[in-house]
Amino acid sequence: MISSLYRLVRWLVQKFALGVLIAVLGLAAYGLWLFLKDNVDFDAVRQQFLAELTGQRQHFREALADVSKRMVSMQAEIAGEQARAQKADRVVGELRQMESLWQRVFGDSAQQRAYAEQEARMEQVKHAAEKRVVDLQQQLVRTQWEKDGIEIALGKIDKRIRTEEASQSRVVHYLLLAWDKTKWYVAAALGLYFFGPSLGKLVLFFGLARLIENGRPIRLADEPVALPQVSESRPSLDVSLWPGDRLWVKEAFLQASDEGLRLRTRFVLDWRLPFTCVACGLIELVEMRNTRAGEELRVTFSHHDDPTVEIALVAVPDGGSIVLRPSFLKAVILAGDSRLTIRRHWRFFTWQSWVTLQFRYFEFAGPCRLLVAGSRGVRAERLKEREGQERPARRANQDVTIGFTPNLEYRPVRAETFWAYFRSMNPLFDDLFAGVGLFLCQRTAAKGPASGARRFWAGLWSGLLKVFGV
After folding, report:
1. pTM for this one?
2. Does residue 82 contact residue 133 with C-beta atoms inside 8 Å?
């Protein structure tokens, strides 16, 4: 609990300090631009600026005098209306005192009507005066607010003039000038910096994500003849090369091999996809071939530098296939002189492609064996028919997905909890696979660079590669 609170306080302090730093640097840059823009004498510019401030002060003083005059006029009118209402009330009281039972029965009827009419007029005068008093008091309150605002603005102008008169520094002058011209833009920028990301995540999670997850799923192929077989992932993996087999492997994953294999260099995995191979590092591969008849030779794979990377072998049978991101592919094993078959699928007109920013998919068709690597290991999730469930479905974190059989229906669904997405522990969308098949995923998401700049560029490069399915 204490450590979580400490991390929260540290994050808030860092964010506040960075926001202040951005504002100060922005003001300094704009002030420098104003300084370089001015080709006149500094004293002349300063005197002109003081003259502008003095003019503004005179304007506010005139406005303050006008408001004070109106307030005095309203207060006098209020006093007059109150006196008028009191006078009308006294007349009404006197007229009512003159009324008696004798006067009603034996008095002059014309005189009584005149008294009644006069009493009604006095009542109207009294009500009109009281209503006018209420209206004037409300206007007086609003005018007092207006006066307060003018006095506050006048105080700020006076302070600016005193500061400008006391300061002979060009730096202070141009900083004040920059602040005067950009203060609202700075406030808007800081508001976006502090609250923009949170507001954006709220809109995305509760708005856009709800619409997207109901879209039509992507399905790249019909039911396969057979599903691929996936071995257990290990930090080090031994694979047999049978007579005639060819192996293309990235040198960083080749640990050891039996003597007797014919070695050469293969510059590109597939010359039909040169840019894709360059982008995901499938170039300058080590090619091995077992040319010994009737003898099985073995090759050991392991990552040279990162012990957290584990390797699994995906055996794709004849008639089967798997959709795979080539960046996870580390080696390919083919039988004899067969050619590696890679089918490309483009999807531009689906919501899923625009949400996941993946428009191209690579389908590796069998027969072949593929060596894939993942952080902390590779896990194969098999979806099988279950009793009472027509189409089995399973979701996975989008950051750990490696590949899937093309018969599965694939679509993004909103992350399960908002706080996991808000705290960047989970992407906005998970991958949902439905049908009978399998998909591959890493056991944990690979960690990016620790520093902010390197993390940014690594994320940008990863996103660009994902657009092309790499």
Report:
1. 0.61
2. yes
